[in-house]
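Data deposition worksheet. Section B asks for the primary sequence of the deposited chain exactly as it was used as input, without tags or linkers unless they were present during the calculation. Section C holds the resulting structure in token form. Section D is free text for depositor observations; keep each observation to a single sentence. Incomplete worksheets are returned to the depositor.
Section A, Depositor: J.P.
Section B:
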Amino acid sequence: MFKGIINLFLIFFITIFSSANDEKVKLNVLFIIADDLNCDISAYGNEKVLTPNIDALAERGVLFGNAHVQYPLCSPSRISMMTGLYPDQTNSKKLRLYLRQSLPEVITIGQTFKMNNYHSVRVGKIFHYHNPRDIGTAGHDDFYTWDQTINPYGIDKLEEHKLNKVKDVFDGATLSWYASDGEDEEQTDGIGACETMKLLDKFSKNKENFFLAYGLYRPHIPFVAPKKYFHMYDEQKIEIPSNGDNFLLTVSDPAKKSLRARKEQINLDYNLKKRIKHAYYATTSFVDAQVGRVLDKLKETGLDKNTIVIFTSDHGYHLGEKGHWQKQTLYERSTRVPLIIAGPGLLSNKKDMSTPVELVDIYKTITDLLGFETPFFVQGESLKPILTKAEKINKSSALSELQVYVNGNLAQGYSIKTSRYRLIEWKYKNNSHYEFYDHKFDKIETNNLSNNSSYKSIIESMKIELNKRVKQASSTPKGIGKQIKNAQPTFEPLRIHSQPKSKN
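Section C:
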């Protein structure tokens, strides 16, 4: 009997110890995504841009310097990231598609957390929203991904009539900017930061495990931030890249179309270019400040001890490079994004500038780090070996794609980026048109070497790699569920505002 009692006590204490230990190592995820943020960040080498909070995050985590999106446009990129699928698999390559229109049965990252008894919550823009039109609404969000959603609505939305812009007819791609008199907490992203901080306080008190996604609307057009962020920069010292149109003579018509689609952005006045770039940098610093507020609260609550932080952007952005002021190209400025991952058990102050990684890798990385079962359909590679042991992963290239119409004809473009080279193929009018760049000598990708005989063997091997990657990324994974391949965007989806519209 005495032996039985001892055994019972042993079982009891082992159970208690195991439960406590499980509780101790159970990790949360804070996912922060900016909109249209390129790699003009101090941590990525551009010390003229002031981003101390993002820099600090990089110092306590791993910075990926060769991270690329799968489609350099908001909605396709975000759907790809949240499903762990390539755009050819999601059938989502347009702005106004809801995820469930093309993949009604897919399991998103947020759903995986919900299935593991986590609280999945969104603040701001994670799936696509038209910016600024959809601020304060549910946009093109996915209902099934979240337990809770918050749609911030700030003074920047109410002050749209004050915007400076390069053309009278305004849309979500019109170059526009405004230095606001308001404070951070009055702006949509500032309100989003406040709401995220409230949630962190709540989770620290109720001990609920979470997947908390904070999506910022900036620095996406319009470039709006409080005046103090504009005052951080001397507009006269802003540098504008010198571009000639000679580069256009070396590329195909689809590539030209991707660079010159916006007629009002061609041949901008030099001082106007400075003003626009100044506004983008100011808005970037504003984004950095909101990230800092959230990360400070994470530390204040003590949740930093068991929370993995992921910071990224949905795609890059040209700031005059190649004469372009947008995304939607297959060049470095458009496909490359910041990706920083930090948290307990991960390496700190580590920069991996060479390994080509993709945003489609995020899903599998999260499930691997948290010990979740990864849905069978999820593509990409887990970055855990890099994050925990600085080991290499089985990935030699990052794949991006883009579609453009040239004179009513569809052109399909694919690009792969390795540690050193970029190969682009445009399929147009039953022909393939190639571009090839060597980043050792040409980081800005202005010298197309596709016909250079010195690189012939490298180009041919990369063509094989590109074809293999495209075939893999176009195949239908098992377990993906029902697919609707010809889903059409809803022109004006139903929107529900988070607050009544102003009567003024």
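Section D:
Residues 26-396 form a domain with the Alkaline Phosphatase, subunit A fold (CATH 3.40.720.10).
Confidence is low (pLDDT under 50) at residues 1-23, 493-504.
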